[in-house]
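Quick start: load a record and inspect it. Here is Carbohydrate kinase:
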Amino acid sequence: MTASTAPAGKGPRKGSHRPSQVDPLAALRAPDDPPWDVYLTGTVFLDIIFTGLDSAPVRGTESWARGMGSSPGGVANMATALARLGLRTSLAAAFGDDHYGDYCWDALEHGEGIDLSLSRTVPGWHSPVTVSMAYEGERTMVSHGHEPPPEEPAPECPPRARAAVASLAPGVSAPWIAQAAGKGTRVFGDVGWDDTGAWDLAGLPDLRHCEAFLPNAEEAMRYTGADCPRAAAHALTEYVPVAVVTLGADGAYAVDRRTGETAEVPAIAVEALDPTGAGDVFVAGFVAGTLADWPLADRLAFAGLTAALSVQEFGGSLSAPGWSEIAAWWRRVQSVEGQSQAALRRYGFLAGLVSEELVRPWPLRRAVPTIGFRRSA
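Running the structure step on this input writes:
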């Protein structure tokens, strides 16, 4: 993406990062560090989420939702999750030249402190939109978008960053991934469902540039031909140094080929309302722990915790937890009578990160049901 043509009154600001309550990398920062902790690129959607529906909408009738939220979606889910965990996040994306685009830009730059100096507003392009309806523990989504604008080269894109998160796609090679890796950026790859049905790791050309690969259990087994997720994780380390396989309700399993470490962490039992964005939040938690140089098991536990907190709320970026939610959870589980001491020790690393001063009423309101209120003169 080229340097921004920002919405009126919202010019790009180099270093627009808003400090988090906790900086997980504080002990590691040095004057010659890259300007950004994590770099991302992708498509930003406007997400509109309807909640409180008793059942699926019925043809020919009108349904009223008891709740509604709006927020940036798409790649913004990952960017928001990273920023709320205290990582200095840079996003290169195209924004629509409409009120939706203005809203998403403002919410990300000013609301979340995400750097958009490599983003741009595309004249005459409408923002992609997704409407999500949550009911009966499930969700239904309808999306609309015009042909995306062509990519434009930029001398600073990708910028120097400690890490980048790349969405890998079969048969597709994104030049920026190799460029980022060549600058010393640690690339974390995730992947979606292979609609081609090939499930060929050789068909993911950018996997060779990744330090870590984070598929779910079904994807990992299909790509490797293994008959269980743990065997699939070990097989994946022939292609990438660190393999992390999410196991759904069973937690996650990880292998680090370089150190010989393995780790398995069970999932945290929660009442899941909406899984939208949970995968992005998991990746963000794992990236944060990796950049902070935590042990593999702590990284895995933290990623699982952040994902578990996110599914208890509706929406993608709306539900990404920050340190207030993490601190509130840590205080609550320690007060549960009969709580497993082994479980508390598993998350004991949080004691050195969070404090009572961080705890605020939870869940926090992250959005209002309108795109934006008019500002008083």
